Amino acid sequence: MQLPKALPDESLYSRICRFLSVCEYSTEQALGLLAGDSRAAIHPYLTSNLGSLAQSTGESSKALLSCQTLRPLFSNYLPNYRNVIEDVAASTNEVIRASQLSTFREKETLSVKYCPVCAKNDLHEYGVAYWHLNHQIPGVEACSAHRTWLVHQELPGRCHVCCHFLPSSETIPIHCTDVATEFSYFAAQRVLVLQALSQDESRAVLSTDYQNQLGLSGFLTASGRVRRKIILEGLYELSEGLFLSPTHLSVRSRLDFSFVSTFLSGQYPQHPFKHLLFEFFLSRCRTFTGVKDESLSTRTAINREKQCCDLLKLGLSMAAVSREVGKSRCYVKSVALRNNIPVNLKPRKITKGIKASVIQLALKGFHGDVIAKKHHISSGSVEQIISTTTGLVERRKQCKAESLRRRYRCQIVRFINLNPNVSRQEIKRAQEAAYYWLYNHEYAWLETVLPAASKTQHVDRVDWYQRDNELVDVIRELLLSSSNKKSRTELDKALGGHGWLTSKIAKLPKTRELLRKKGLFGVNTCS
Question: Alpha-carbon Rg of the chain, whole angstroms?
Fold first, then answer.
């Protein structure tokens, strides 16, 4: 007794349903022969009893687990229970308990899903509609191939299988949102990667991994705190577009901060859907601030550039490559130029000869605007050619530094020659830009041409006793010579406005006494 051969992306659960539809046994008899238990419950995506089922397929139990169930997805995101989930001998109850589905806050009613368009196409191509494994991924509600919402089908009875329990090709498809399609494709690709990994190659998903990715995307503050409000806002908007109607898997609200906090803490097991949603969110983000991990960012850039090159060599247009890698056409064009990959550009203005001429002039240090004007092209095109030519940017930086060095040296020397008795401070004020550039980059040379620094002039301390005796006589004469009575402030201004009679009067006792006698200094004045 053999199960039908697996069709593309068919789940093990679907093969059992197809077998029940063509065999001559009752459901209980068939389950007894296939699973060794007539009362066995067949889970749609966490199928167990693989040892018994493998005998009816001619395939290894490991292959069934990896390629026809979603147990690799759960084992990857639940590392503490990996041994049980990846155990081919584990019973259904053991696998269900290890998957933690009953403990998650985010629950969904167990059902089996299908795409009406896929069902119709499968019936036409293979003669039977079947359950696709990728459609059963928790949280996936759309078919990425046909951009339609998946239809939920209630499971039959306790054993979850019965004769002729297959997708209907008569259901009318409903067009889904773009974000639901993108998430469906993302989740399917993620499952493919996890299926390809062996148990030794797979590793635990740690909260520190997500922290690093958040830092690269700018979702960490300078002190390392998570920007929960921005993240939750993005997750909520994504969640709103992933489902036809609200479900228990959806983010509850824009203020559901526990959705993010418990996930990033790494203390509790989380539903695989939350991991997929969070990874999908990060994949759509663009870095704006935050700490950079140089090795990771460099490696990511290299992989993206290699992907661009491969797609361009396949003959894809720049627009198609831009959509595929999620970068601008300008980025794709720069990668093509840097790797000497010919691209069909309209208009075809920048020929190989023009490019060679631009590089030659750029090597000589000509300004970008001058080069652009000479060849009647934009300055942006000139800068792109320069930036994609190996070593040219560094060469032009060196030329610019040498040009500044010559110009500023000439300015300083000419100014000193025209003003032989000029001081350092006067040179600094008159030639500020040249002075500071040479001070930072050519300090030794600058010291050789500047005039000798003038010595600091010593200013003797004020003899306030002598100053007091002098002021008494001067003030007495001012008071006698004036017909009008002057105030202290007016007298101080007449003395030169040094503040002697105001702020410094406490240091001049004789002067103070004279002012008091003349009625210019009150008895209770504290100055």
Answer: 41
The whole-number pLDDT of residue 204 equals: 55
Q: What does the angle CA 373 – CA 374 – CA 376 come to, to the nearest 5 degrees?
A: 60
Average pLDDT, the chain: 85
> d(Cα 100, Cα 272) in Å, to the nearest integer?
10
**Of the candidate ranges 301-310, 335-344, 518-527, the one whose mean pLDDT is the lowest:** 518-527
How far CA 373 is from CA of 189, 217, 346, 355, 380, in Å, comes to 49, 39, 20, 14, 12
Q: Which residues contact 474 (CB under 8 A, 6 or more apart)?
A: 495
CA 94 to centroid of chain Cα atoms: 39
491 pLDDT above the threshold of 50: yes
Provide mean pLDDT across the span 174-192. 93
pLDDT of residue 17: 92
- Quote the Cα angle for 97-101-105, to 5°: 135
Q: Is 203 exposed, middle or buried (0-12, 13-18, 19+ CB in 10 A)?
A: exposed
How far apart CA 495 and CA 319 sit, in angstroms, is 82
Alpha helical stretches, state H, 364-487: 368-375, 379-387, 392-418, 424-430, 432-441, 443-449, 464-481
Q: What is the pLDDT of residues 345-373, one digit of tens each?
A: 554 677 888 889 999 999 988 999 999 99
Our CA dihedral for 278, 279, 284, 289, rounded to 10 degrees, sits at: 80
pLDDT: which is higher, 526 or 79: 79
Q: How far apart are the C-alpha atoms of 291 and 287, rounded to whole Å?
A: 10
| Structural domain boundaries in the chain | 12-185, 205-284, 393-449, 466-517
Q: What is the pLDDT of residue 252?
A: 81
- Residue 291 confidence (pLDDT): 35
- CA–chain centroid gap for 192, Å, is 25
Q: Which two tokens stand for residue 294?
A: 């140089």
Residue 135 CA to residue 123 CA, distance in Å, equals 17
DSSP for 260-329, please give it.
HHHHHH-SS---HHHHHHHHHHHHH----SS---HHHHHHHHHHHHHHHHHHHHTT--HHHHHHHHT--H
At 206, the amino acid letter reads L
Identify the burial level of 169 via C-beta atoms within 10 angstroms of its C-beta, where 0-12 means exposed, 13-18 middle and 19 or more buried. Answer: middle
Paired strand residues for 283: none
Distance of CA 150 to the CA centre of its chain: 31
Q: What is the pLDDT of residues 37-75, one digit of tens each?
A: 888 889 999 998 888 888 888 899 999 999 999 999 999
Evaluate the omega torsion of the peptide bond into residue 347 and state whether it is cis, within 30 degrees of 0.
yes
What's the pLDDT band for 14 if we cut at 50, 70, 90? very high
In single-letter form, the type of residue at position 247 comes to T
- DSSP state at residue 98: H
Residue that is written with structure tokens 């490991």 in the block:
62
Measured between alpha carbons, how far is 199 from 207 in angstroms, rounded to an integer? 20
Q: Is the pLDDT of residue 242 over 80?
A: yes
